[in-house]
Amino acid sequence: MSEPDEHEREFDLRWADSAEHKEPSARARMLAARWKHDPPGPVPFRADPGPVTPRRSSWVSTAVVLGCVAAVIVLLGYLEFRAPY
């Protein structure tokens, strides 16, 4: 059987979208059945945030990284200085 051309496919999509009754998805049906017997409790629009842990300053992280890079450069320079020629 041949593939429907683009025009026929477009017509089928328009026909399906214009259906009077659309069946809900399986998840929607499952949630509707579950909530019928056990409705969910009210949920605020924005829940209160949990406890906030203090973060270290970005300057501290930057200093640690730059310190590590400087230590590696010094170590490599020391090893190059001690290497016999």
Structure description:
The protein is mainly alpha-helical and 85 residues long. It has a domain at 58-85. 58% of the residues lie in helices and 0% in strands. It contains three helices and no strands. The chain has helices at residues 6-17, 26-37, 58-82. The radius of gyration is 33 Å and the shape is elongated. The chain starts with 5 loop residues before the first helix and ends with a helix.
Chart the SSEs and their pairings.
Layout: H1 6-17, H2 26-37, H3 58-82
- State the helical fraction: 55-70%
Give the helices and strands as they follow along the chain: HHH
- State the low-pLDDT regions, or none: none
- Arithmetic mean pLDDT: 81
Please give the number of β-strands.
Answer: 0
Question: Which keywords apply here?
Answer:
85 residues, 3 helices, mainly alpha
Would you summarize the structure shown here?
With 85 residues, this protein is mainly alpha-helical.
